[in-house]
Amino acid sequence: MWDAAEGVIRWVDMVAGIVHRLDPAAVDGAGTGAAGLIRTGAGTDETRVGDWVAALRPRIGGGWVVATRDGFLLTDEALHPEREIRAFEDDVLRMNEGGCTADGAFLCGTAGPAGTGFLYRLDPSGEASVLSGGITVSNGIAADPLGDGMLYVDTATRRIDRLRIDGGALVERAPFADLSGQEGLPDGIATDIEGGVWVAMWGGGAVIRFDAAGRPDDRIELPTPQVTACAFGGAQRDELYITTSQQGLATPDARAGALFRAHPGIRGAVEPSFGG
After folding, report:
1. Whole-model pTM?
2. CA R_g for the chain
3. Could you give the maximum distance between any two Cα atoms of the chain, in Å?
4. Distance of CA 118 to the CA centre of its chain
5. How much of the chain exceeds pLDDT 70, in percent?
6. Phi first, then psi: what are they for 16, rounded to 5°?
7. Of the residues 193, 222, 240, 261, which has the maximum number of CB atoms within 10 A of its CB?
8. Tens digits of per-residue pLDDT, 193-217?
9. Is 84 exposed, middle or buried (0-12, 13-18, 19+ CB in 10 A)?
10. Taking Cα atoms as reference points, which of 233, 230, 240 lies closest to residue 204?
11. In what order do the strands lie in the sheet with 36-39?
């Protein structure tokens, strides 16, 4: 995620429990369109928050909300813990990805055995509740820039869905884009100002854009297959930062697990922050 206050990109190494922070002005980047590797290994600055860090987003009043293995952590600006909120007790499930709604809630879903997981909502008051069950691998989730809903990936469905939430309850879930014909599995997502959705393809070595009608219309190739997430950043939000993984590769190389940057020719939407 882009930290506009500091002008840096932040990303997580989930299984290491680390939040990385990098000033992109200090490194070389890519030309227009193509994705260029800008960082391998550890970031220029890193903070170990715990044994598992699935996602983080800024809090409106300062600090961060962090998704941990089994719940949430509210921290100060330096990622020092202030309050822990347990969402569930289950050794099989673990939090996997999250994002904020326009009304300031933080949504985060689990990964685990087929159909056994949940999508959780953390209210700004600090109350955690189940928004939906039947989840397998909860991945990308982002506010719809052209509406009041959320765009969401449960990887097992090979779809991007649009969620409509009212009063803290999920009232509708409808398919937005079908990715069953694409190589790889849908993972993290980012949205742009035209309502397009950019989705990282795990095993597909690419980030694919779907327009506001759910049709694929652009593609960024990566030199490594396990593409995990993407986020718009830069002063004009016209840079797309892309994370990758070494997980599942028989012979990892320096590009697997690296951070990449591309210039796709469109500006990203501004993501909401957590209201708590």
Report:
1. 0.96
2. 17
3. 48
4. 17
5. 96
6. -95, -10
7. 240
8. 999 999 999 999 999 999 999 999 9
9. middle
10. 230
11. 36-39, 259-262, 239-244, 227-233
Which residues have CB under 8 Å from 5's CB, separation 6+?
58
Burial (CB count within 10 angstroms: exposed 0-12, middle 13-18, buried 19+), residue 26: exposed
Measured in whole angstroms, the distance separating CA 39 from the mean position of its chain's CA atoms is 18
Beta-sheet strand order (sheet of 106-111): 94-100, 106-111, 117-122, 128-135
Distances (CA, A) of 270 to 121, 245, 273: 20, 26, 9
Rounded to 5°, the CA angle 253-47-197 comes to 65
Query: What is the number of other CB atoms lying within 10 angstroms of the CB of residue 92?
Result: 10
Q: Check residue 237 and give left, alpha or beta (phi > 0: left; psi -120 to 50: alpha).
A: left
What are 20-34's pLDDT values in tens digits?
Answer: 999 988 876 554 567
Helix (H, G, I), strand (E, B) or coil at 16: helix
